[in-house]
Amino acid sequence: MRALVQRVRSGAVSVAGEEIARIGRGLVVLLGVGPQDGEAQARYLAEKIATLRIFEDGEGKMNLSLLDVGGEAIVVSQFTLYADTERGRRPSFVRAAPPEQAEPLVARFAELLRAQGVPVQTGRFGAEMQVEIHNDGPVTILIER
Asked: Does the reported pTM lie above 0.85?
């Protein structure tokens, strides 16, 4: 699994002009699933993301986690994180898990993140989404498992 984690002041997801998710301070997690991924990877990433110390404390140091600041998260499925650009001009996505494997694993990851104590909203799997990200910092971190 690959998670592109962006610390945000706010974020939102819309589908066909309808807003389906909105958060204030927190994280937008773009989540890619590979064919080898399963429960263990989802569990690891959920715990890591909930406790990753990327929010500033009173002294301006990245010392606080999403849980520490009472932040929220939006999880958006993002198969393009597995793009292969080695050959040609058009990316290949053969390294991404097929939808029937990825969709339940994205949902499971969101459940596991909620179980860590994080309020979680999600995008809509397979939909054409517009993702609004007000990156704070900017802070963007790629985590793989």
From this structure: yes
